Amino acid sequence: MAGAERVARPGRVFGWRAWSLVLLLALAFKAGYSAAAAEQLQWLLRPLAGLLNATGLFNFMPVAGGEWLDAGHDLIIVKACSGGNFLIAAWLGWLWRGRTRPFGPTLALGAFAAAWLTTLLANAARIVLIGYGQDDLAQLTGLSDADSHRLIGIGVYFGTLLLQLQGTGTALAAPAIYLGVTLFAPLLNAWLTGRIGIDMTHALWSVGVPLATLLFSRVSSSGWQPGRATRTAGLLGSISTNKTSMPTLIGHPRG
After folding, report:
1. Largest Cα–Cα distance in the chain?
2. The pTM is what?
């Protein structure tokens, strides 16, 4: 019985050495992804375009620079659409689910394969929503096109991570992983490279959407409590950016 209890205890097998190695691998992948061009990310972009075309909703064709264009919908898949940051977050999420197993190449590669598939499906859902719902969302909410784009992207990515980590018994795992990849890592990189900082508009959305999602989930599960809900009223409405008239890029610099 004692052995069974040790295995079932979260984090018992994954010690600090394993997590340190995982974080180093994640940072190394993030650095490589940031330096890569779109042509070098076709293992993410080509399957994405192929899956979207298979739905019959789009007709993406390859163009110069490794990008994919659907002229009929005025949409273009660029490097930022590959979802490199979410791929890291999904990989960490699958490793978190398997944290009671001994860490090794089999677990790491299996989690990466699952993260690749998760990223492919999340990106496909995100682009369908952008292509067929972004304009309606902007009209319904009064948000700019850029903010509607961010809301869909962050909502899909964080929602997917929440679903991925359901049943792990750790409610804060999803926001910790998501914010760690999308905010902490860029801030650390900016500090190490001497840059001024990060895009504060994107940072506010990155915090606001997960916070609103968790608040809604908490209210839904425990019953409606107006006093709790009104504490964050207007959080997303206070963030705005200028509208653009250029063709829609299905992604943003934070990936």
Report:
1. 64
2. 0.78
Q: Which residues contact 145 (CB under 8 A, 6 or more apart)?
A: 134, 135, 138, 243, 244, 248
Question: What does the H/E/C string look like for the chain?
Answer: CHHHHHHHCCCCCCCHHHHHHHHHHHHHHHHHHHHCCHHHHHHHHHHHHHHHHHCCCCCCEECHHHCEEECCCCEEECHHHHCHHHHHHHHHHHHHHCCCCCCCHHHHHHHHHHHHHHHHHHHHHHHHHHHHHHHHHHHHHCCCHHHHHHHHHHHHHHHHHHHHCCCCCCCCHHHHHHHHHHHHHHHHHHHHHCCCCCCHHHHHHHHHHHHHHHHHHHHHHHCCCHHHHHHHCCCCCCCCCCCCCCCEECCCCCC
**What does R_g of the chain's alpha carbons equal in angstroms?**
19
User: Rounded to an integer, what distance in angstroms lies between the CA atom of residue 154 and that of residue 67?
Assistant: 22
Instruction: Let me know: does 14 contact 99? Beta carbons within 8 Å.
Output: yes
Split the chain (255 residues) into runs of 10 and give each run's mean pLDDT. Answer: 41 76 92 92 96 96 95 92 94 93 92 98 96 92 91 94 87 89 79 71 84 79 51 45 49 48
